Fold this sequence. Notes:
The protein is an alpha/beta fold. 40% of the residues lie in helices and 14% in strands. It has two domains: 2-148 and 327-343, Rossmann fold, CATH 3.40.50; 165-324, Glycogen Phosphorylase B (Rossmann fold, 3-Layer(aba) Sandwich). It has helices at residues 2-8, 34-44, 53-58, 77-80, 95-98, 100-103, 105-114, 126-133, 179-191, 207-216, 231-237, 255-262, 293-304, 307-324, 327-343; strands spanning 17-18, 27-28, 63-66, 87-91, 120-123, 142-144, 165-170, 196-201, 223-225, 243-246, 267-270, 285-288. It is elongated and about 75 Å long. The two termini are 27 Å apart.
Amino acid sequence: LIHLLKELKKKTSVNVLSYDNDSRADFNIKSYGVKDKLQRLAYKVKFSKFSSLDIKIMSEYDIIHIQHSYLFRKVMPFFKDLKKKPKIVITLRGADTYKKPWVSEKWREFYKENSQYISAFIVMSNHQKKYVAKWGVSEDKIHCIPISFGDKSTSEPKFPSQNTLKLVSAFRMCWEKNIEGSVRLAKILKEKKIPFSYDLYGDGDDLTQLYYLRERNDLMDEINIKHKIDNIKLKQKLTDYDFFIQLSISEALPTSVLEAQSKGVPCVVSNSDGLPEAVLNGKTAIVDEYSNYTMFANAIIEVWNNKEKYYSFSKEAIKNSNDNFSTEIEVDKLMNLYKSLMTN
Length: 344
């Protein structure tokens, strides 16, 4: 996100408001801090028309882009109370679409009753666009602008490892990512007597499941639990691997799959939600239903053993990332959206 904002600032005037103490932000707001309390008091005694300090700051701008959707409540005073109403854009990244509305009345009410006050919703995939619409958001307000992996890749296509198949995954350890599925895939590869190592990066509430299933399935020597590491370090390591594995049950569109492709690493992904929109099936990735583990294992072995086919996957993976998911492309799409909002 920081890199995206940096590139956006080259195209237009952008200021950043943060609710954390972030030195990179133009404005740091502590809700109910001293300055905010004074502003709220001024509003109550009718010395100011702004109900809080952040609303006062945001009112000076033509467009407010909420990058973290859970902050939607922060802009609700603009819905009815103020005459000057900036255009409001909210980016939805996945959980706010596929999970939270099922269990949260506040999220359902926001989409159904208050989405009329939002100028545009940004989603990561066309599948997510349709899913958001089912909660009551008008489709003409929903714009598909996928997340980017970074600047265009200069990586070269590569060949597979010679003696040991090298697999990698990187995700938050939770049910959506299908931890059990990754272990099942590894078990099948071991049963087929394929020499392999499988590194899994990430932490999360369900990390214990990975530890338990690794031991239960006798995969202590094959599965390596790496925990979370800095994203820059992870991207530097990606070229060491033959395949990036992401067998999610639910997924809007994962940056990690885009990053892997940008490094020339073929991917093995489920066809869940917007995930297949991040790859080209049969060209940059192996795609199927998340539970079809035997198919995944057989396809991995087939591509790994075919150097020319693997090289083609690697080459097309880099091209797919550069052609569709670079920061430059995301910035251009955002600028086009902003311009369209200002002319309507």
